[in-house]
Write a structure and sequence with these properties.
three-stranded parallel sheet, 15 strands, alpha/beta, D-Maltodextrin-Binding Protein, domain 2, about 280 residues, about 40% helix, 11 helices, five-stranded mixed sheet, globular
Length: about 280
């Protein structure tokens, strides 16, 4: 590499670093004037439009309240596929992603807020559970059965850790795809959080939540919002408001309002540390 090329390369690197620092410093200002770009999916009770066409849901309203405490009163939602959220946040396409499980793999790519909820996994099956799926171990021991999960979702890793073969896991882009695959017998069960599972079976006739499913505590997932790592300072400020809402019970009240059960983070708060969660 010649001296001129080297200097050009250094200049570009310096400019990119400066740009990242400026974007982090300016994110709060942008949020207050234009609103944050917020990547979501269609998944009740977390993100959906109410009868008036207004975006709402447990994730939406928890975020709305935490941002309001910072003087930020709007965001700009974009519906996308689940698997595109983390790459989109990392690249700067989105300022913030939908609340999601904080996993070591995702922590390598983005900066997470502290959690606002703990999500317990659930299994959804056809009424009567014709294939007798009561645990991930059942899926491991019955290789003829297939289970569904969101493409890139943490549940894929949970099943693999429990011994389910990758080829028996069907990764699908959204909730409707999971429901249709189960209804059409392409899969025997699918994994989502308990609150979402309850909402699905209330809306779709012929499905039920497996009552006997007792997931291990290591699969309890802490839900936080992903940001680009350059925006860590903004995340730190937002964390102050999230913690206040969790400690006061406001976050749990919002979750309960939308039927998200078993998500109260307060019993786990003393051991909640972002670095520890990222290294699980």
């Amino acid at each position: 590499m010649g001296r001129q090329s080297l200097m050009v390369g250094l200049s570009v690197a310096i400019a990119m670093a400066a740009s990242a620092q400026v974007s982090a410093a300016d994110l709060e200002s942008k949020a207050k004037t234009d609103g944050l770009t917020y990547a979501i999916i269609n998944a009740k009770p977390w993100y959906y439009n109410d009868d008036q066409g207004t975006l709402t849901g447990a994730d939406v309203e928890n975020l709305r309240a935490a941002l309001a405490a910072m003087g930020i009163d709007k965001f700009n939602p974009t519906v996308t596929e689940w698997s595109s959220i983390v790459p989109g946040v990392k690249s700067g396409r989105f300022d913030i992603g939908a609340g999601m499980y904080i996993t070591p793999e995702r922590c390598k790519e983005v900066a997470f807020t502290m959690p606002y909820a703990v999500i317990i996994p659930a299994l959804v099956v056809k009424k009567g559970n014709p294939d007798g799926v009561k645990s991930w171990e059942d899926l491991k021991n019955k290789p003829e059965l297939k289970a569904g999960a969101y493409a890139g979702g943490a549940e894929v890793g949970y099943m693999v850790k429990s011994g389910v073969a990758n080829e028996n896991i069907v990764q699908l882009p959204d909730q409707n795809s999971l429901v249709q695959a189960l209804v059409n017998s392409q899969i025997s069960a699918f994994n989502v959080g308990a609150g979402q599972a309850a909402e699905i079976v209330a809306q779709v006739e012929g499905l039920e939540v497996v009552k006997e499913f007792n997931p291990p505590e290591w699969s309890f997932s802490y839900n936080g919002w992903p940001f680009a790592k350059a925006n860590a300072d903004f995340v730190a400020k937002l964390n102050e408001q999230i913690r206040k809402r969790v400690e006061s019970g406001e976050a749990e009240a919002t979750n309960q309002k939308f039927g998200v059960k078993g998500a109260d983070l307060r019993p786990f708060l003393k051991k909640v540390n972002i670095n520890d969660i990222c290294s699980r």
